[in-house]
Amino acid sequence: MTHARTIWEEGREPGRRVVALGVALALTVAALDLELTGRMSLLFDLVFIALSVIVALLVHPRDFFAIGVLPPLLMVGVFLLLALTRPETIANHGDGVVQAVVSGLGHHSISLFVGYALCLGSLAMRRHVLAQRAEAAASREAHDPRNADESLVPAE
């Protein structure tokens, strides 16, 4: 008997692809946000939160660690690029690179916290569901009469 797969069991993409997708989408939304508003705004925050959940749901279970550390590194990476090229988009005009990154992280800390918490929560839920499914499959296999130990069957 097979069960219907849940959203927690669907992710099958390799970690490298999911990380590359996350970086590409984060940079794209950052560029779009800058084009529309001239600063990093709520648009970036909302997409960052959604992106953090999406990557957690797409990745193959063997690559959970790569995605478990992705959201903070992704935000720092985007803000570092902005601090090097357009620091006024995340900080005050005239702030140095380090100060701009710290300011950007401070201004967007709620979205970082929420996105990271949802990412880790999704990974934890996926791990729990996959462990339950594996345990149930092992239990079914152990109780399957076709798997009975042949040494217990009397010889003819």
Structural account:
Helix 1 (15-37) crosses helix 4. With 156 residues, the chain is mainly α. The model has no long low-confidence stretch (mean pLDDT 90). It is elongated and about 75 Å long. Helix content is 68%, strand content 0%. The protein has one domain (7-142).
Total count of strands = 0
How much is the radius of gyration in Å? Answer: 23 Å
Shape descriptor:
elongated
Task: Note the total helix count.
Answer: 6
Order of helices and strands: HHHHHH
* Termini separation: 33 Å
| Largest sheet report | none
Which segments are poorly predicted (pLDDT under 50) over 5 or more consecutive residues? none
Layout of secondary structure:
Layout: H1 15-37, H2 42-58, H3 64-68, H4 70-85, H5 97-107, H6 109-142
Helix pairs in contact: 1-2, 1-4, 2-6, 4-5
Organism: Nocardioides eburneus
InterPro entries: DUF6542
Protein name: DUF6542 domain-containing protein
Structure at a glance:
Helices cover 68% and strands 0% of the residues. By secondary structure, the protein is mainly α.
Describe the structure using short key phrases.
single chain; 156 residues; 6 helices; 68% helix; elongated; membrane; transmembrane; DUF6542 domain-containing protein; transmembrane helix; DUF6542
